[in-house]
Amino acid sequence: MPDATGLELTAHELRDANAEAVLGTTFYRGRAELQVAPAHVVEVLTTLRGKGYRTLASLHGVDYYPDEPRLGVLYELLDMKQVDRISVKARVSTEDPHIPTATGLFPGAEFPEREVFDMFGVVFDGHPDMRRILMPEDFPGFPQRRDFPIGGEPVLFTYNEENSYGKWQ
Amino acid sequence: MEVKREGLGPPGAPSDFRARQLLARDMLRGDLEGEALNLYVEERVMTTTLEKAVAWSQGNSIYPMTFGLACCAIEMMTIVGARMDIARFGWEAFRASPRQADLLILSGRVSVKMAPVIRRIYDQMLEPKWAISMGACCSSMGVFNNYALVPADKFMPIDVHVPGCPPRPEALMHGILRLRDKIHGHRPDGWRERYDAVGTEEVLAGEQGGAGAINVLAPGDTAGA
Amino acid sequence: MALETDYRKREESITYTAQAAGQGETHELLTLNIGPHHPATHGVLRLLATLEGEVVRDIKPIVGYVHTGIEKTAETKSYWKAIPVVERMDYLAYYFNAMAFCGATETLLGVEVPPRAQYLRVIHLELNRIMSHLVWLGTGALDLGAISMFWYCFRERETILDLFEMSSGQRMHTRYFQVGGVFEDIPPGFAAKLTKFLDEMPGRADQYADLLTKNQIVLERLHGICPLDEQTLLSLGVTGPLLRASGNPWDLRKAAPYSSYDHFDFKIPVGTVGDNYDRFRVRHAELYESVKIIRQALEGLPEGPHITPDRKVALPPRHELATSMEALIHHFKLVTEGFRVPPGEAYYPIEGPRGELGCFVRADGSAKPARVHMRDPSFVNLQALAPMVRGNYIADLIATLAMLDPILGGIDR
């Protein structure tokens, strides 16, 4: 990981390039994270890619309910030469869940972005194939949001077996 | 020392060789009658009904279908392996095509997307067909009681449920043998019959609305405390 | 809505990119649906293959047929109870799943894992790696037609599962790794049985090599088939044996060692061309390296506790419950509510048998994780399938899928 000073230097560099790109930095338990405005995500990723973080290790979403903006998209970048990792976080709200796609920079982001769309509803503008990947195509709702119910079936016991799905006719 | 040989035939049957020879000669000539004839036939001919014979052969040569979904599939593969050998029972011919298979071993979690596919495959199987629901995830919901899974009972009839997560290969073997008993038509005694505990069920069969339930706690019950 | 119309509707909505049918040929393109129920797809993977004759022009994997909502289920359970849930993701590498999750939680808690626990973790992780590679080898050879490999590999696998049963009581999905260490120390006969296994495993791996590596049919099916260069793999984010087969020696056990991997001396098998044969040889060679690691770990196993002595995180030993009031209270708290993790986020990557397995945990101060995301290697590696098989025969597709080693449980979670 870049240590805290390295992280601040990177953040300064990015702010110099574009004043409103970086919203903040966090360094917790050895993990460096940049909070970035969603519109400038691709710019930041390009700069970081130029600095050596050429592999996208993970792209995933987090729901920060009830903090707004609710939906966060995290990019975990990896620099194989220096063995360094840095995270980039972009938060969007549910009213306008659009963020530019990273598939131009990292073609390996295709499936993970589809998964974030499927599970959280974040639309990646410019993605070649923005469809649900894990749930059926016509599934209503976005399952991994915090206000989506966990669902499930009632547990079958002898007393509710008859009325429930237990006995197939 | 004198050695005395005695025949093991039914009481009344002659025990020395010459007498048996005469008996066989009479049989071939059609001269045996009555009790002697009955005994003769009983000793030599196995009688059964056609259904039982067919069921016996069906049960001993089932073609399971290769239907591994998740972790239970790995344990299903181990019973094909050499240590727990499913070929002992004649079930080693795993067919991939549903048209050729008898048994659908649902091994693993059935997700919402997969359920119509399974139903379609089950419909494509020809009668007679059976289904084993292997593991906790398809029998009930298992570890994952959530939006993404469907218990197999909801959309297809299951003959045997094998619990476990994943069930040991021995447990699956037990389930398979129970299914084979079911196919052969003899239901082994449940544990209540074996241990003379009939009547201790939570809900006694035939009672309406759970009025006869003796072990089910309703709201307000204190369990005797 | 009838089941059939739903199914048809779903099939229609999928579009495929049909690349031009090459150099003036006028063969028509056929869309063939392979799976989700198919004997050669490893699990319920659905592939929409666009074929021109027997040549694959494009392929579109469709996944989600075993999606279990593991990540959402883990949010409803406390950290201790979420370990069995998360374990069932990549169902051949269950120790790795648990390790990633426990590692992330330990990072957030700031808890240190005692050295004996680290060594025990390494032993079990490498045994699991061997087991996963054995299943890959058995089923992969089955796909190619070398059916008897299946029985040989599963014979070895049974020995490993016996070892797992000795240490934890379960064959698969053992809850052996806990936050702060391992659940229990290894029983007395474990070391002897493990040594016996280690003595015979390299010989067995040699036997598998004798059967397969110089076999003409295997060579024709795998050698020079579907190579993919390192740059494409890196841009797709592929890690693990696939990347190592193309020449890049990236292995997290060496690059960013975790859990005492830096104490052991082992090599990283690396391929040259990146075709199917290299992938096969790399995974096969990893069997020997894992045996070396386990031997070193077993010989150097340090004394000490097998789980962190921090009672706020790990259960106290049972004999203390009779004498110490604090132990009783800790036990009660841990079992009912669980430990609370201070707010923060952590991403813990480890080297799984298929590549980088990472676990992202977001804690919000309560006893349940607020978000658990497993970065599964097969999910990302599956994107490499399409570039690999374009322009090759459909039989090569099957062989490539076998060498890719996808585990659908990890892809779908």
TL;DR?
The complex is a heterotrimer of chains A (169), B (225) and C (413). Chain B is an alpha/beta fold and 225 residues long.
- Characterize the largest beta sheet of chain A: strand count, sense, and whether it forms a barrel: 5 strands, mixed
CATH topology of chain A, by name, is: Beta Polymerase, domain 2
The CATH superfamily of one domain in chain C is: Cytochrome-c3 Hydrogenase, chain B
Radius of gyration based on Cα positions of chain C: 23 Å
Q: CATH superfamily of chain A, please?
A: NADH:ubiquinone oxidoreductase Nqo5 subunit
Would you kindly provide a written description of the structure presented here, covering whatever features stand out?
The complex is a heterotrimer of chains A (169), B (225) and C (413). The radius of gyration of chain A is 20 Å and the shape is elongated. In chain A, β1 and β2 (31-36) form a beta hairpin. With 169 residues, chain A is α/β, with parallel strands linked by helices. Chain A contains three helices and seven strands. In chain B, strands 1-2-3-4 form a four-stranded parallel sheet. Chain B is elongated and about 80 Å long. In chain B, β3, α6 and β4 form a beta-alpha-beta unit. The longest helix of chain B has 16 residues, at 169-184. In chain B, α4 crosses α7. With 225 residues, chain B is of the alpha/beta class. The two termini of chain C are 28 Å apart. Chain C has a domain at 70-309 and 339-378: Orthogonal Bundle (Cytochrome-c3 Hydrogenase, chain B), CATH 1.10.645.10. Chain C has 413 residues and is mainly alpha-helical. Chain C contains 17 helices and eight strands. Helix content of chain C is 49%, strand content 12%. The model of chain C is unreliable at 12-24 (pLDDT under 50). In chain C, a hairpin with a 2-residue loop joins β2 (46-52) and β3. In chain C, the strands form three sheets. Chain C has a three-stranded antiparallel sheet. A three-stranded antiparallel sheet of chain C has the order 6-7-8. Chain A binds chain C through residues 28-31, 33, 54-58, 60-63, 74, 76, 80, 83, 85, 87, 106-112, 115, 119, 131-138, 143-144, 146, 148, 150-151, and chain C through 6, 9-10, 13, 63-64, 67, 69, 71-73, 75-76, 107-108, 110, 234-238, 248, 250, 255-256, 344-347, 349, 356, 358, 360, 362, 370-371, 373, 375, 379-380, 382-383, 412-413.
